[in-house]
């Protein structure tokens, strides 16, 4: 079986995962899910990796879950296999994940991008949750993550009508953090990843954990969680080094520990 992804190291401490099913517009079948979750889990264990970029092709980040694979399934099949539950493994990755999106990010493709911590879009990107046009609903987190990302009004609009939004509307709505010319997408995403990966590894992971906690807890709990993590950074070498470097007016040399 041909691999559905490639894994590269485009810069120091940065991994790049590229979806490689261009003929199917990178539709997410079970094999893609297994390969992405296995690759990210392995990269997550690698102390020399500080950020992971996930990208597709110029035409499509991913045009959704694989409709041809899904079409013949019955309720018993998808319930028994707990279809899509395997993607939850991506939420357990502690390394910051960056989605670099060009072209279509529809259905499961939009949901995969939203599983990442940061979305950078090419000006060609198109986002949407068109599942309703197929007689189903989002199944990889779209109704939940999209609503948290852009609010009820826009999420209802996208999920109920199936319409797509362009990169600029996605940026205005708060779904993506930056829009760049398509030709500069990978350079920008790799640059952001390099910047993140140059920071203290434990601090970057704690930032990810703390921001994500905002979606899972009350404000009081979230503030307590953040404060306890903040206290714990004082047990790291990198806190001593970062603050000493500031005082000594020099760049820090983090040990990522
Ligand atoms: C399987 C797909 C696919 C998909 C595209 N292809 N999307 N195959 N699953 N999600 C295949 C097409 O069948 C075709 O292959 C090839 O990719 C190129 O696509 P075209 O349709 O010919 O390209 P174009 O006319 O440019 O249209 C692009 C498009 C359209 C607008 C993105 O392909 C499209 O609407 N795709 C489906 C988008 C979608 O509904 N996504 C949500 C899926 S459901 P062949 O060999 O046929 O030429 C989902 C649900 C998750 O994600 C959880 C709930 C169930």
UniProtKB/TrEMBL annotation:
InterPro entries: ClpP/crotonase-like_dom_sf (IPR029045), Enoyl-CoA_hyd/isom_CS (IPR018376), Enoyl-CoA_hydra/iso (IPR001753), Enoyl-CoA_hydra_C (IPR014748). SUPFAM superfamilies: ClpP/crotonase. Belongs to the enoyl-CoA hydratase/isomerase family. It comes from Actinokineospora diospyrosa. It holds the Pfam family ECH_1. This is Enoyl-CoA hydratase. The lineage of its organism: Bacteria, Bacillati, Actinomycetota, Actinomycetes, Pseudonocardiales. Keywords: Lyase. It catalyses: a (3S)-3-hydroxyacyl-CoA = a (2E)-enoyl-CoA + H2O; a 4-saturated-(3S)-3-hydroxyacyl-CoA = a (3E)-enoyl-CoA + H2O.
């Amino acid at each position: 079986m041909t691999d559905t992804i490639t894994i590269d190291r485009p810069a120091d401490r940065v991994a790049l995962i590229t979806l490689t099913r261009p003929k199917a517009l990178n539709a997410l079948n079970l094999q893609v899910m297994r390969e992405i979750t296995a690759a990210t889990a392995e990269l997550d264990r690698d102390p020399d990796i500080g950020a992971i970029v996930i990208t597709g092709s110029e035409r499509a980040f991913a045009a959704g879950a694989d409709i041809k694979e899904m079409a013949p399934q019955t309720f018993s099949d998808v319930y028994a296999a707990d279809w899509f539950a395997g993607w939850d493994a991506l939420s357990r990755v502690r390394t910051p994940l960056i989605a670099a999106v060009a072209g279509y990010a529809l259905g499961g493709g939009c949901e995969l991008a939203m599983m990442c911590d940061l979305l950078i879009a090419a000006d060609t990107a198109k986002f949407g949750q068109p599942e309703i046009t197929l007689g189903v609903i989002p199944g990889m987190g779209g109704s939940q993550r999209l609503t948290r990302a852009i609010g009820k009004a826009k999420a209802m609009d996208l999920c109920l009508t199936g319409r797509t939004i362009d990169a600029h509307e996605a940026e205005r709505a708060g779904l993506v953090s930056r829009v760049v010319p398509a030709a500069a997408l990978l350079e920008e995403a790799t640059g952001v990843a390099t910047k993140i990966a140059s920071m203290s590894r434990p601090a970057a992971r704690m930032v990810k954990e703390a921001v994500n906690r905002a979606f899972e807890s009350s404000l009081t709990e979230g503030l307590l969680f953040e404060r306890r993590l903040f206290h714990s950074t004082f047990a790291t070498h990198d806190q001593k080094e970062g603050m000493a470097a500031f005082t000594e007016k020099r760049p820090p040399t983090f040990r990522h520990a």
